[in-house]
Amino acid sequence: MTIMRHYHLSGVPVAKARHRTVRCGPGVRTYDPKADEATTAKWVLKAQVHEAPLNGPLHVVVEFYFSSPKKGKRIYHVTKPDLDNCIKFILDVGNGIIWADDKQIVGLSAIKSYGDPRTEIVVEVVGEENA
C-alpha cells in the first residue's frame, strides 16, 4: 500500500532568504528575514497534519503557483523568486511536521507556474515506512 499525503499553502509562494547580519553597538546580530513567513507556514501545515511525521525515504512533488502576469499569456513563471530557494523554504518548513527531517527526501520534483497563488505539496513514501 502506497502512503501519499497532499498539503496546500494559500498565498504567494515564499523563497528561503539568506540570513542577514547587522552591526549592533560593539557586536553584530544575525537574523532570518523570513522567520515570520516560516512560522505562519508551519502553523498552516500543522493544522493540515493529523499524523506523526513520515519516516523513511520520501519522494516530494512541489508546485508553486504565482499570480498571472498583467501582460501576455505565459505558462511558466520565469522571474524571481528562484525555484531552488522556494524549494528550500518548503523543505525547511516541513521538518518535524510533514517529515521527520528533510534528509529523508530521496526524490524531488518542482515547478513554478501561474494560477491562484498557492503552494501544493505531495509526499509519497518510497520504501517501507520506518525503514
Note down, in words, how this protein is organized.
It contains two helices and six strands, in the order βββαβαββ. With 131 residues, it is of the alpha+beta class. α1 packs across α2. The longest helix has 14 residues.
Please sum up the structure shown.
The protein has 131 residues and is of the alpha+beta class. The protein has helices at 35-48, 83-94, and strands at 4-10, 20-24, 27-31, 58-66, 105-114, 118-125.
What is the strand and helix layout of this fold?
Elements: E1 4-10, E2 20-24, E3 27-31, H1 35-48, E4 58-66, H2 83-94, E5 105-114, E6 118-125
Parallel strand pairs: 4-5
Antiparallel strand pairs: 1-6, 2-3, 4-6
The neighbouring-strand order within the major sheet is: 1-6-4-5
Any idea what the CATH architecture is? 2-Layer Sandwich
- Ranges where pLDDT stays below 50 over 5 or more residues in a row are none
**By CATH's scheme, which homologous superfamily applies?**
Holliday junction resolvase RusA
Helical run tally: 2
Largest sheet: 4 strands, mixed
Distance between the termini: 15 Å
What percent of residues adopt helix (DSSP H or I)? 10-25%
Which percent range describes the beta-strand content?
Answer: 25-35%
- By CATH reckoning, the class would read Alpha Beta
Count of discrete domains: 1
CATH-defined topology: 60s Ribosomal Protein L30, Chain: A
Briefly note the structural class of the backbone. Answer: alpha+beta
Query: How are helices and strands ordered from N to C?
Result: EEEHEHEE
Envelope shape: globular
Question: Mean pLDDT, nearest integer?
Answer: 87
Rg for CA atoms: 17 Å
Number of strands: 6
